[in-house]
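Note to self: user wants both folds in one dump. Writing first protein now.
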Amino acid sequence: MTIENVSWNKSFGGWHKQYTHHSDVLGCEMRFAIYLPPQIAQGEKVPVLYWLSGLTCTDENFMQKAGAQRIAAELGIAIVAPDTSPRGEDVPDDADGAYDFGHGAGFYVNATQAPWNRNYRMYDYVVHELPALVETHFPVNDKRAISGHSMGGHGALMIALRNPSRYTSVSAFSPIANPVNCPWGKKAFTHYLGNNPESWKAYDSAELMKHNAQPVPALVDQGDQDNFLAEQLKPEALLSAAQAVDYPLELRMHEGYDHSYHFIASFIEDHLRFHAQYLL
């Protein structure tokens, strides 16, 4: 597995770097970003927080807007941010150029429907291929946490719930918590997974939490002025599922905050310190 370094910037004593590589899982070239904290200069192997971004995003949004590097440097945690979907001229895209499907909108599932199943296998990429790549090429250990925003919050929660032994903790900002019951989720899942809603539940955090036997500590932050709150995000479904099975979820509602990276930047320190309890 070879990777190519395409950019690097020193940040809080560590390094933010971007890499490209060919993904066998996705069948295309992919780019990811990694923040390596200064502790690696002393020969330490550090744990990794994987960050999954939302619709229309790339690896750059979180690294440039969230302001996470200062606390990651203090704590000694690496951050890895993949792209949000496969991309390229040979990768199918929405015919109308919609923002909520196709390029930039992989929803972190393994598509089963043609033509999407040829490339849209972001679940396997995030859970298996990318960590194997990171753990081969960088001074990191095998402790992993996962977090994300919106579509990426859905991805982080769902992936942790499905793989509790792989992640010490999970957090999310404004996650699409119940995608089987919202317009974004219904559109994406119909195209990627087919017309049977029962098959969608394997990628729905609220549904998965109802039947979880091995809980992963979870923190979710949601702004009460989020334009997508009622129609798309549905945190009440996640909270209801957690309460039904006594799941260790802390869901915090924040007055006045919206769906933007201003919200994420306001509380990202809390999330990093939350994960540090389990990673370090």
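First done. Writing the second protein, which came from a different request thread.
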Amino acid sequence: MISRIDLRGDALPEGGALRDLLPRAEFDVEAALEKVRPICEDVHHRGTAALIEYAQKFDGVTLEQVRVPAEALKTALEELDPAVRAALEESIRRARIVHREQRRGEHTTQVVPGGTVTEKWVPVERVGLYAPGGRSVYPSSVVMNVVPAQEAGVESIALASPPQKEFGGLPHPTILAACALLGVDEVYAAGGAVAVAMFAYGTEDCLPVNMVTGPGNIWVAAAKRYFTGRIGIDTEAGPTEIAVLADSTADPVHVAADLISQAEHDPLAAAVLVTDSQELAAAVERELEPQVAATKHVEDRIKPALAGKQSAIVLVDSLEDGLKVVDAYGAEHLEIQTADAAAWAARVRNAGAIFVGPWAPVSLGDYCAGSNHVLPTGGCACHSSGLSVQSFLRGIHIVDYTRDALAEVTHHVVTLAEAEDLPAHGAALKARFGWKVPLT
């Protein structure tokens, strides 16, 4: 059901050579880019008419309008299962606690007497958030995108989710209910690259945004790449991943359950166990069979995901080697199920989020830990962070110098300007003090 990669016996290679030995899903965004390019430009030129046409083509629905009516949001919340509403409210509450603490304050540094640099943090003006609606419905992604944007102080928030045939062309009602709970009333029935293009270019109904965030399929990732530079993005999200670093103290029932929990997202989902215990590896393999058989989405998601090239049990000689492996892998979600798990977790450099010990499974982070589940995939955790309040803020430096403070440093500025053969830079300071200004 899941393959093995045995890295025992020899010294582990370094850097890219080690990464190349580890399992990873194929996710060719560049190839998809060529397919989304004409779609994006069609939306640019035809606006809402193109959105309606693509809803018919890709989603099999006939839309009269793309924006979701306010009454539909209200109805979705009124008809939401009370237990689901309570769970969403708790998820929102916990996310707000964590994300509110992330907001940076303005800070002024006195460089010299009379010379200060202030860094202030300003939210982006308008964002477009994407909530997937393919194999599953993700109201949790609505929470994870909206809460940090709101806590950052973003004034204008729009959200898009694919139209659903069974709901009359509206996004899934649980998505709409989550929007209503969060006070987001600008919602569009648009999916994939079409939604990203709507946000990037704007249409008759939707003003363009400054930034697009949220997970999605390869078409969403390709559209984000296409518009990078025109808009800000969070990340080009690929298939979801879990890696578990475990030793002989780990419970194989827990480890198997956690691997399966990510495999049920998608047939390209990655489930990786890194362990120095052959006994644990064998026990997890035995546990997978009955647990998979007892759940849903077995043939179309879980079995292909576990059997795919992106999933494996990786055997190593020691936890030290295991730490090197998980750092090279840079998982979206990394669980540490070892003795003294907190100490090992503290040494991890590359992961989207780290889950410490047996009582912090990834599923907790997906919904109610308070952390964000929009995280870097495909090894991008070595250079990128998960979504947070900071994602929606821009740092601006404010430079304030008096005449005396500028005079004190002018000779250094002039010297450096001339060293770079940019004499007009120095002349801009000389002019302030009545110096003779040779321009050549």
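Dump finished. Worth passing along: The radius of gyration is 26 Å.
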